[in-house]
From TrEMBL, chain A:
It is a multi-pass membrane protein. It comes from Jiella avicenniae. It comes from the Bacteria. GO terms for cellular component: plasma membrane. The keyword Oxidoreductase does not apply. Coiled coil: none annotated. NCBIfam families: caa3_sub_IV. The chain crosses the membrane at residues 29-48, 54-75, 82-104. Pfam families: COX4_pro. Keywords: Cell membrane, Membrane, Transmembrane, Transmembrane helix. Its main location: membrane. This is Cytochrome c oxidase subunit 4. It is found in: Cell membrane.
Automatic annotation (TrEMBL), chain B:
Residues 35-222 form the Heme-copper oxidase subunit III family profile domain. SUPFAM superfamilies: Cytochrome c oxidase subunit III-like. It is a multi-pass membrane protein. It comes from Jiella avicenniae. This is Cytochrome c oxidase subunit 3. It is found in: Cell membrane; Membrane.
From TrEMBL, chain D:
GO terms for cellular component: membrane. The keyword Acetylation does not apply. NCBIfam families: CoxB. Keywords: Copper, Electron transport, Heme, Iron, Membrane, Metal-binding, Respiratory chain, Translocase, Transmembrane, Transmembrane helix, Transport. The chain crosses the membrane at residues 22-45, 66-86. It holds the Pfam family Cytochrom_C. Its main location: membrane. Subunits I and II form the functional core of the enzyme complex. Electrons originating in cytochrome c are transferred via heme a and Cu(A) to the binuclear center formed by heme a3 and Cu(B). One of its GO terms (molecular function) is copper ion binding. Its EC number is 7.1.1.9. It is a multi-pass membrane protein. This is cytochrome-c oxidase. The keyword Chloroplast does not apply.
């Protein structure tokens, strides 16, 4: 393909603008800084929050916010068609079905969950087998 | 989405060599490509979702075992990698933006930086794997240091999650590599062709998955 | 048997397509290479037809060996290992390389763009890739079989598959994994095509129900297949890399494998049956000369099955030690998912009411589908209710149940569709009487094969048994006898359809005077589907009295 | 040989009520199938092309109403069947006042049962009639499923889990036992029989069994031979908790939790001793996973259970 036709098609902007080093940085740069701040917050929460073992839940909540930012700005969901949001949403909803109904089994089993799991015994003595 | 097929598009687009013969116009073609990739990403969410479901079940069954096991991961490398991926997410998003504006030089540079960051990520990952193996943190290792059996479940999930994620990074880097080559060769139109947007979406997804893998594998069990 | 109407009559304003063979997608530049590199959805449909037929006969050969072995109570024909490998092969090949791809990838590929008036699917190269992936996956599976086989059953239950089976589990799992990519590629293609490629005038509620069925199927494919891919990945990493997460010795839970597996595999049942429902709707409306009864209800029923189908997987696990509360929830939802299926059955029957019914082979298959699917569906209620399932689970009752759905339903529907669109696909008419005989023979052979299995299940014959108590023999003999008839009936179409390719009469563009857009173009269609834009007018299934002679002019 | 079998004997109370459901479902689905088939046949004949039947158009409201009616009717029918079937689950879920526990271990490819008195059998299970019996099921390798068609019951036997199967025997006789979950090469040989005997006959059968030590005695021997007594017995040097009176009591753990020492706890403490360490003790006990068979574990647990009884008020 010839260079001329290519340039003809590369948008309607003036040539000088097209040759500039970077596209407009906002809002991506702002979002990026927010993501960095959230990353730092997440680390702080994980190490020094009073939540103990449950700190991971707070970290996951932060991760959800970060994911929303990435989807909206880095993946341009803002300007996408409704059906594309629907596609992404379907993935999340179906994930919820998978988690929800699987846990519906595990969380309603009688007794302490982890304790009811046992290690099966593999080795068996000859005498036992012959019995 | 019939609107996409409405015959009211400027003639410029119809004549583009980027337009495949079975599409009516570029708008329809771009809508198809974007929707196709979003649907693919939904399947990717469910692919990793199977793994996350397994993690959820075992974390609920063995909360203590998982907290203890997670404390052994290399959090510094993990966090540096998070930062690297977020930065590459920024450059990828800007590359998509630049491509929409037809800024070829800018696209070339931004993709190159994205690839560079991805390679550093993989390098760090490799170093981390080397450290893990050095600490016998592989479930089949006879000197596996953690006593409780669920620790092996956690470390199986660790290797599987990070491994599959690394494969996705590799695929992304390959895609970026080809596109970079084509951009430099000027073999496709930046504005008429959707491949940079598609690659950007995919890279965004790879970012996204890491945002969940990172807390689950690295931030677990750090509270003192 | 019946007089065949409209054979030689063409639609008003006949399009110029059908007359010139060199313009058709078949004749244009014939070479093997041009077929292997084609991106034409119609040619890819044919490639899929060839490959699925091949896999069907591989799976069928395994089925024949199973039935021969079970003729006598003792395990005499095959060794126990041999038997286990044969039924595994039968399951793996039939499920992933025949039932899942057959209608979406053969008929769907060929017809969806034609039916909505598009030139091709949205991603033609992806479409070709999907066929190659399917072939590659199938090659892995068949390679596994040739190099010693695999004996886990198609369900790959852990820990047997991970820690105990010494057969080619990984190879087979990789094959299925690859075919999953093929399924996803097809699903993406169909959904994107339906969303973005419809020409003006082809609104959502103007689409034929076959397209809706493929759309709903694609939704399931996309949302379930990735979880299968993950569970197979975990299986293979556990076997090959020691990264076990189902290993009980590490506190792993084999039941988790079943949850993840059935999250795919129950919806996969609907992947296999929904396209069949679409085909049957097209056929019944055409040969009843009636608008479909309750179009909107049919659409919502398809979508409801697609969605609710994801909430019922736990009914495969009532005996596994799953919590009772979860079991009851899954049981309730399983009863609910039966409702839209029942609605569809009633609608098909109501469509025939006050019709002008003729009995071409496709119509016979379609009517067989309605009856057999009803029986398969109703026996599903037995398995959905917990106490009854505790008795019938993993017995021949289950085997009979899903064969009524898969074979009585899906395979019948596939043959209905294959005969219905054969003139469109090949440009040739098949011999009607032979086809009608084959359809009846298939119905008879099928029932003789599988009805006794309901009884066997009820008296306690477990699945996957190589030898069995003498008291069960009578029913097994009946079943095996039926299988012989069924096998013969399956070979018949292979004979007369191939015969028709060479000696069959040339087909006009609309031999059935059907209403779909695909009949507005030549038989076979030209390379780019339509030479002129198809006319999208009236409502879908507009079987108008003006297009056909009827006795009561007041009708419609 | 070769007799035709159509009806299964119903040997448990569950079998009787399951049969009720089964017959009910058969009647309902038979009627629906008949309805569908006869409508198909009727319409096919009456509305065949060229027949004289009237074909005036149906009014629109009619089809809408009809659609609503059969949708609601189907929902109603299916929910009713569900409720009817589910009622049996709730009835079964109530644990009986007292039951007789028999331990069953599934392994490739046999069933091994151990009676409370220590009597053992392979691929056979003798039970008294008129009793509520609870099978405690463990697997040594892969998933099996304990299936007695005459009981209308099956229960998967899953490695890593202890599953239970409860039934009330009603009718004496000899019934088939199958493994219903595919378990490998000789899956179809993993069969046996269940003999339901009159109570007197069962008692008689028990006495005629070869000298099986009873579970507790067995466990006591193992307690010494496997080295447990070295630490867990009064005079030992290493600090380890005494086990007398432990069973059934609340045990405080080092991480602050308090658990009840039941069968599962005892079993886990043997196999994964580091998981639930008793408060005040160091986690020094080695795991006995692999050193004990499933049967030996059952015996050890029984012995530890017996210590509770002897030490507390009897």
């Amino acid at each position: 393909m010839s260079r001329a036709t290519q340039h003809g098609r590369d948008g309607n902007r003036p040539a000088a603008d097209r040759r500039s080093l970077l596209p407009p940085l906002m809002p991506e740069l702002g979002v990026f800084l927010a993501l960095f701040a959230l990353t730092a917050t997440s680390v702080l929460v994980a190490f020094w929050s009073a939540l103990g073992g449950l700190a991971i839940l707070a970290c996951l909540a932060i991760a959800l916010v970060m994911a929303a930012l990435v989807m909206t700005f880095f993946m341009h969901l803002r300007s996408a068609m409704a059906v594309m949001m629907l596609a992404g949403l379907a993935g999340v909803v179906w994930l919820a079905i998978l988690f929800g109904l699987t846990m519906a089994d595990y969380l309603t089993r009688p007794g302490d969950l982890g304790a009811s799991m046992q290690t099966p015994v593999k080795a068996e003595t000859k005498a036992e087998a012959a019995n | 989405m019939t609107e996409a097929a409405a015959p009211s598009t400027p003639g410029r687009a119809i004549r583009s060599p980027a337009l495949a013969s079975h599409f009516h116009d570029l708008r329809q073609q771009h809508a198809a490509a974007d929707l196709g990739l979003w649907i693919f990403l939904a399947t990717e969410i469910l692919f990793f979702g199977g793994l996350f479901a397994a993690y959820l079940v075992y974390a609920v069954l063995y909360p203590d075992g998982f907290l203890d096991a997670a404390a052994e991961t290399e959090i510094v490398i993990g966090t540096i990698n998070t930062a690297l991926l977020l930065t590459s997410g920024l450059t990828a998003a800007l590359a998509v933006k630049a491509a929409g504006a037809g800024m070829r030089r800018s696209v070339t540079m931004l993709i190159a930086v994205t690839i560079g960051l991805g390679l550093v990520f993989l390098g760090a990952k490799g170093y981390e794997y080397w450290l893990d193996l050095d600490h016998h943190l592989y479930p089949t290792s006879p000197e596996f240091p953690l006593a409780a059996p669920p620790a092996k479940l956690f470390w199986s999930l660790y290797w599987t999650m990070t491994g599959l994620h690394a494969i996705h990074i590799l695929v992304g880097l390959g895609t970026w590599g080809i596109i970079l080559f084509q951009t430099v060769r000027r073999s496709f139109s930046l504005t008429d062709n959707s491949r940079i947007r598609i690659a950007g979406l995919y890279w965004g997804f790879v970012d996204l998955m890491w945002l969940f893998i990172w807390p689950l594998l690295y931030l677990m069990g750090r509270a003192t | 048997m019946s007089d065949i109407p409209y054979r030689d009559v063409d639609v008003d304003g006949e399009k110029p397509g059908g007359r010139l063979m060199e313009e058709s997608y078949l004749g244009e530049r014939f070479s093997i290479w041009s077929w292997l590199t084609t991106t034409d959805h119609k040619r890819i449909g044919i490639l899929y037809l060839i490959s699925t037929t091949l896999f069907f006969f591989i799976g069928g050969a395994a089925a024949t060996m199973i039935r021969l072995e079970l003729f006598t109570p003792a395990g005499d024909l095959l060794t126990d290992d041999g038997y286990n490998k044969v039924f595994t092969l039968h399951g793996v090949v039939m499920v992933w390389f025949f039932l899942v791809p057959v209608i979406p990838s053969v008929l769907g590929n060929f017809l969806v763009p034609l039916m909505i008036g598009a030139k091709d699917l949205a991603f033609p190269r992806l479409n070709l890739l999907s066929w190659y992936l399917n072939i590659l996956g199938g090659t892995f599976a068949v390679w596994a079989m040739l190099s010693g086989g695999v004996d886990t059953g198609w369900t790959f239950y852990t820990p047997y598959s991970t820690a105990f089976a010494n057969t080619h589990v990984s190879l087979t799992a990789i094959g299925v994994f690859i075919s999953g990519f093929s399924t996803i590629a097809t699903g993406v293609n169909m959904i994107v095509t339906v969303h973005t490629m419809r020409p003006p005038g082809m609104g959502w509620f103007r689409m034929p129900l076959f397209v809706w069925a493929i759309y709903a199927t694609s939704l399931i494919m996309l949302l379930s297949t990735p979880v299968l891919a993950m569970v197979l990945t975990l299986l293979v990493t556990e076997r090959l890399l020691g990264l076990g997460i189902f290993d009980p010795n590490r506190g792993g839970d084999p039941i988790l494998f079943q949850h993840l597996f059935w999250f795919y595999s129950h919806p996969a049942v609907y992947i296999m049956i929904l396209p069949g429902m679409g085909v049957v709707t097209e056929v019944i409306t055409c040969f009843s000369r009636r608008r479909v009864f309750g179009y909107a209800a049919m659409v919502y029923a398809l979508l409801a099955i697609a969605v609710i189908g994801f909430f019922v997987w736990g009914h495969h696990m009532f005996t596994s030690g799953q919590s009772m509360y979860a079991s009851l929830t899954f049981s309730f939802l399983s009863f609910i998912v039966a409702v839209p299926s029942a609605i569809k059955v009633f609608n098909w029957i109501a469509t025939m009411y006050r019709g002008q019914i003729t009995f071409e082979a496709s119509m016979l298959y379609a009517m067989g589908f309605v009856g057999l699917f009803t029986m398969g569906g109703l026996t599903g209620l037995f398995l959905a209710s917990v106490p009854v399932d505790l008795h019938l689970h993993d017995t021949y009752f289950v085997v009979a149940h899903f064969h009524y759905i898969m074979v009585g339903g899906m395979v019948s529907a596939f043959f209905a569709g294959l005969h219905f669109w054969w003139p469109k696909i090949t440009g040739r008419l098949y011999p009607e009487t032979a086809a009608q005989i084959a359809a009846l023979l298939m119905f008879f052979g099928f029932n003789l094969t599988f009805f006794p299995q309901y009884i066997l299940g009820n008296i306690g014959m477990p699945r996957r048994y190589h030898a069995y108590p003498d008291a069960f023999q009578v029913w097994h003999v009946l079943s095996s006898a039926g299988a012989v008839i069924l096998a013969a009936a399956y070979l018949m179409p292979l004979g007369y359809l191939v015969w028709s390719l060479i000696w069959g009469k040339r087909a006009p563009s609309n031999p059935w005077r059907a209403s779909g857009l695909e009949w507005q173009t030549g038989s076979p269609p030209p390379k780019h589907n339509f030479l002129a834009n198809p006319k999208i007018e009236g409502s879908v299934y507009d079987y108008h009295p003006a297009q056909q002679p009827r006795r009561e002019p007041s009708d419609d | 040989m070769g007799e035709v079998e159509l009806v299964l004997p119903a040997a448990t109370s569950a079998a009787v009520s399951t049969d009720g459901k089964l017959v009910g479902l058969l009647v309902i689905s038979g009627l629906i199938t008949l309805l569908v088939a006869s409508l198909l046949g009727l319409f096919a004949v009456r509305f065949r092309r060229g027949s004289k039947a009237g074909r005036s158009r149906l009014p629109n409201w009619f089809s809408r109403e009809l659609e609503t009616v059969w949708t609601l009717a189907t929902v109603g029918l299916f929910v009713a069947i569900f409720a009817w079937a589910a009622s049996q689950d709730f009835a079964l879920a109530v644990p009986p006042a007292r039951s007789m526990e028999i331990h069953v271990v599934g392994k490739q490819w046999m069933w091994k049962a151990e009676h409370p008195g220590g009597q053992r059998e392979i691929n056979e299970l003798h039970v008294p009639a008129g009793e509520t019996i609870e099978l405690v099921l463990n697997s040594q390798d892969v998933i099996h499923s304990f299936y007695v068609p005459a009981f209308r019951l099956k229960q998967d036997v899953v490695p890593g889990h202890t599953t239970r199967m409860r039934f009330h025997t009603e009718k004496t006789g000899t019934y088939r036992l199958f493994c219903a979950e595919y378990c490998g090469t000789q899956h179809s040989a993993m069969i046996g029989r269940v003999v339901v005997m009159a109570k007197e006959d069962y008692a008689d059968w028990l006495t005629r069994q070869p000298e099986g030590d009873d579970l507790e005695e067995d466990g006591k021997k193992l307690f010494v031979s496997k080295g447990c007594a070295g630490c867990h017995y009064g005079s030992s040097q290493v600090r380890a908790p005494r086990l007398a009176g432990v069973y059934g009591s609340k045990v405080p753990l080092s991480d602050g939790r308090v658990v009840t020492a039941d069968d599962d706890y005892v079993r886990d403490s043997i196999l994964q001793p580091k998981r639930d360490v008793v408060a005040g003790f160091a986690p020094i006990m080695p795991s006995f996973a692999g050193a004990l068979t499933e049967g030996e574990l059952v015996s050890l647990t029984a012995y530890i259970r017996s210590l509770a009884v002897t030490e507390t008020a009897r």
